[in-house]
Amino acid sequence: METVKKGAKAKMADVNPEKKEGPVATMLEEQTAKIPSDAFLWASVGAMAASLTLKILRKDHAALFVANWAPAFLLFGIYNKLVKQLGHDSED
């Protein structure tokens, strides 16, 4: 069983030895780097405000649905910041 694990690790090391990003990731990084980081913060705050409004209007299911957008927007903001600091072009 250990030889199988070693073989799998060795195969995975050969897949991307230079640790380069693929064309899709590179394109996404180029596009997301153009968006200001605070846009994601404001989108998150907007989702929270919309969720509160829906809750006040007693549309509970819609309020929960929209409330789930806030953490996603914050994570997109973190990704955006990381791309700007550590993205594929950080070596250039």
The biggest beta sheet is recorded as: none
Percentage of residues in strands = under 5%
Q: Work out the radius of gyration.
A: 20 Å
How confident overall, as mean pLDDT? 83
The number of domains: 1
**Poorly predicted sequence stretches spanning 5 or more consecutive residues:** none
Order of helices and strands: HHHHH
In terms of structural class, how would the helical and strand content be classed?
A: mainly alpha
Q: Judging from the principal axes of the Cα atoms, what is the shape?
A: elongated
End-to-end C-alpha gap: 43 Å
Question: Strand tally, please?
Answer: 0
Number of helices: 5
Q: Helix share of residues?
A: over 70%
Would you mind describing this structure in some detail?
The protein has one domain. The chain contains 5 helices and no strands. Helix 3 runs antiparallel to helix 4 and helix 3 packs antiparallel against helix 5. 9% of the residues are buried.
